[in-house]
Amino acid sequence: MTTLFSKIIAREIPADIVYEDERCLAFRDINPQAPTHVLLIPKQEIARLADASTADQDLLGHLLLAAGRVARQLGVGDAFRLVVNNGADAGQTVFHLHLHILAGRPLHWPPG
Ligand code: AMP
User: Fold this and answer.
1) 51 DSSP 8-state letter
2) Which of 17, 69, 79, 101 is the most buried (most CB within 10 A)?
3) Could you confirm whether 98 is annotated as catalytic?
């Protein structure tokens, strides 16, 4: 199912894009929960992390490495949190796999 994130990839709706490579795109969350709150998404449409398969192994590794790169690029490479909400009960609202990159304030644990 195509979501608004595919429209952001296609530049059909605007976003504050901070990073792009051949396989993924990162842009600032429209409703930030921290001073730095970026969403990192694969260009390939995968609805949920639980829908990824071993065929996506390389892409998933690519996303984690890109997350670190984006954090460093934004000056928060030493203290950031990655969050993946999988499924509506876990808080997922957009069904295109995305990593939340959160930073810029103390991040408490447990996350709640
Ligand atoms: P999740 O709840 O994990 O599915 O995260 C979806 C995130 O997408 C939320 O944090 C929203 O604030 C964010 N979001 C929704 N629409 C947009 C948009 N047009 N541009 C940027 N972020 C968005």
Assistant:
1) G
2) 101
3) yes
Q: What CATH superfamily classification does 4-103 receive?
A: HIT-like (3.30.428.10)
Overall pTM > 0.90? yes
Residue 94: pLDDT band with limits 50, 70, 90: very high
Measured at the CA of 26, the angle between CA 75 and CA 68, to 5 degrees, comes to: 45
Question: 34 CA distance to ligand 1 centroid (A)?
Answer: 13
Instruction: Give residue 37's region: left, alpha or beta (phi > 0; psi -120 to 50).
Output: beta
Q: Point out the catalytic residue in the list 37, 62, 96, 98.
A: 98
Q: What ranges do the domains of the chain cover?
A: 4-103
- Strand pairing category for 99-103 and 24-28: unpaired
95 three-class SS: coil
